[in-house]
Amino acid sequence: MNFLTTIISEYLTELIGIPLTLLLNALLVACEISLIKIRFSHFNTELRDRVEEDKRIGSLFGSGDRTIRVIRFGLTVCLILYALLSYPLFKSLFNNLEISAYGLVTPVSALLAFTIAVSLHHLTGELLPRAFGLAYPLRSLRMGTPLIVIFGWISRPVRKLVFGLVSSFWMLWKKEDVPDLDSLDLETQIELLRKESPEMSPVAQLILKNTLMMRELVVEDVLLPRNQVKYFDLNLPLQDNLEMAKETGHTRFPLCYGDLDHCLGLIHIKDIFRHTGELEQLDLRRIKRNMIRIDSEEPLESALTKFLSHRMHMALVIDEFRGTEGVLTLERILEQLVGEIRDEFDADEEVLISPEMDSGETVVSGLTPLHEIEGKFNVDFENEEVSTIGGLVTSELGRIPDVGTEISISSLQVEITQVDETRVVEVKIRPVDDSGEKHADESRE
Length: 445
Hints:
- The protein has helices spanning 2-10, 12-39, 45-53, 55-62, 64-96, 105-135, 137-174, 186-196, 202-213, 238-248, 269-273, 284-287, 300-310, 330-338, 370-377, 389-397; strands at residues 224-225, 232-233, 252-257, 259-268, 292-295, 314-318, 324-329, 353-355, 362-365, 406-409, 412-419, 424-431.
- By secondary structure, the protein is of the alpha+beta class.
- Strand 2 (232-233), helix 10 and strand 3 (252-257) form a beta-alpha-beta unit.
- It is elongated and about 110 Å long.
């Protein structure tokens, strides 16, 4: 009894401070896990909506990156306080119990004190609150919001100083801003989902990843440029149009007067086959179907919704001046989800990206979308005027280049290997050092 009384009288501050520190640490951990769970709940929009509608926690969720920084700073403070309070208490406790091992009282008591303190913190300050945060994210955020708000206000000067130093160091090292919460890798999230659902196949993982990535794409990223679009021209005889359709093997064609800027609608080959009269007397305008128009800057997800709601497979893509940039097909959208779709008529189509193992170069079709090049070579072209690598090369040079021309664009050396009268057909790409040229310039003709 005297021993207990002595411990209480000498370590009253520690006995009160340790449980309080563990409680604060647990609240912060639960809030951090809850915030991350909600921010990346791609398949539970109802949960996100409920959080955003809650006035008490909506502001924390809206500024998630700042909230995470407050929480992490708070956890660091809690850990330091816990170490300062718990270690002396447990060490003194074991010393007073006169635990000895070959006369080494102090080392043994110190080891036991460290082990008990770490185990207690890991169990009550980490594992249990993490589980609670995952199971009850809304309740966790509601309980921890007052603490986060108060601590955020108190620690603001110190946090700004620390974050400023970290940002400066990161900018000097990586030449970019400090990554925020939204930069968490989608592949990591998919991998975690796969572990939770072992029956998920690799194909399902790929489609799921592509579905999440598609939110970053707009129509311009995947459209077929107008100089590659085959269409029925009302200024030409019907037989010429049918010969063109036979050569391409396509089933749907825009119906135009002269060019795509004067498009009347869509012609389906089946409608021509169903015509019962003389083919020479067929008026294409009478069998045309409606063709929707989509803005080039419209999100690809929105374009897919329009295709499904209108039961369409092809649409004209227009720019801000109402001019036609090209066409978008349902197939090109679906390829962003499942990969390239090829049928028996596509057997001889060119491969968009084909690495050459011996030379380290990569052969790339001129029609390859820029976002695919950016993803493969980890570059950013920062050109919003074009959507394909062939268009980028032409835009940088200001003309259709000659075969053999080389330019440097965003740490890539691009050699033009094949062209025709209207476009760049094929290029070779190889990465260059960061010290290389960053702007396009002709190095040889």
